[in-house]
Design brief:
The protein has helices at about 20-35, 70-80, 95-100, 105, 120-125, 125-135, 150-160, 190-195, 200, 260-270, 315-325, 345-350, 365-390, 400-410, and strands spanning about 10-15, 40, 55-60, 85-90, 110, 145, 165, 180-185, 205-210, 220-225, 230-245, 250-255, 275-285, 290-295, 340, 355-360. The protein is an alpha/beta fold. It is globular, with a radius of gyration of 21 Å. It starts with 9 loop residues before the first strand and ends in a 34-residue tail after the last helix. The model is unreliable at about 395-430 and about 430-444 (pLDDT under 50).
Amino acid sequence: MSLFDTRVPAVVLRIDRNPFHHGTLGAVRSLGRAGVDVHVVADCADSPVGASRYLSRLHTPPPPGASPADIAVVLRRVAARIARPAVLIPMDDACAVAVGRARAELAPAYLLPDQPGALPERVADKAELAGMCASLGVPHPETLVPDGPAEAARAAWRLGLPVVAKWSRPWLVPPGGGLRSTVLVRSAREAGELYRRAEEAGSRLLLQAFLPPGPDRDWFFHGYADRSGAVRAGGPGRKTRARPRGAGLTAVGRWTPNPQVRALAERVIAELGYRGVFDLDFRRCGTTGRYHLLDFNPRPGAQFRLFTDTAGLDVVRALHLDLTHRPLPHGAPRPGRAFVVENYAPLSALRPAPEGRELAWHSPDDRAPGRALWTLWGRHVSTRLRERLRRGNARPDAGTPAHARVVRQASAPPADRTHHSDRPSHPDHSDHSDRPGEDRAGRH
């Protein structure tokens, strides 16, 4: 008999247009293998996700930049088609915020964790998170919120250059406009000029002290807070290779016991009263050794399948079991287990993995996404290369304003750099904007 109530389907929701979001495929496979019907509300036209044998049905997503109300309308339409209650799994911050806001109207059709609807939005907001960390006594990089260009320049000097600049609500940053959710600012002038684009970005600009990356400094903790508030599934992991090197998304991660990171994560979850799936990012300060909480993502992280225990439990399965009032199996952790994103770390995918390994795309029981990856990835890289060459042939002349030069430089990542990746010369902190080609500079 299955542990799962297979009468209850799952709806995986993602508004972000990133076709190479491997976390979406992870959610489809995890629940599909358990016999659950998995519906995906996302643009998978040019994504390997659409080839998975475990995908029950694709639904048209909301358009880019859709408001929380628009997202709720689409979810109600999907619920009417499914015609039975479903577990809803937002896979990006914009969707997590929208679901939190519309919780009351969605609850009859969707099973959702019982928590205040504003909490996902508060923890995802970088300014709110800084304030919460201060009130909880949780280490967090010193953060200033300027109220004008001149103050932004002064704040940059006060924090000590370089500084990390973040938009407090990164999910509102419009794609294709040259703005990044997070960048490394190297001069006071850049800070002031970036502030002038706050209206375009849709939220406040934050300036944050920069904690350099280094060996054994980038950590994450994935977990699921059940109905009682207990943290189940998941665990602490260490980023052993990033894309690009020194910053950016996790190309190779390893399940690594860390009592300090676990204790800190569990304290944050308990004191906030958070319920549901979460993904926390930490960076250890090389001077003090303290772990600073950089990002609180109220959703599954893209590499959540790293933390699959001996009972087969991961955070997405824990969510479905808990919301359908099924007991969660007690498995043992699997320290040393690795997670590899093949298109970012192909050689790591070929090396021996004595402690076990999960690949983001390739799987013996679901081969089509892995085959589709390389065709789609080659097309993507070729397109990005052509775009980069066009930008290189249209360099600004000496009369171009300085802020335009800064923005244009920031918006031209190499062709093989996809969703939320930093520039190698800028070892920025990394956040989970999950947009192709976007810098990720939130992880200290």
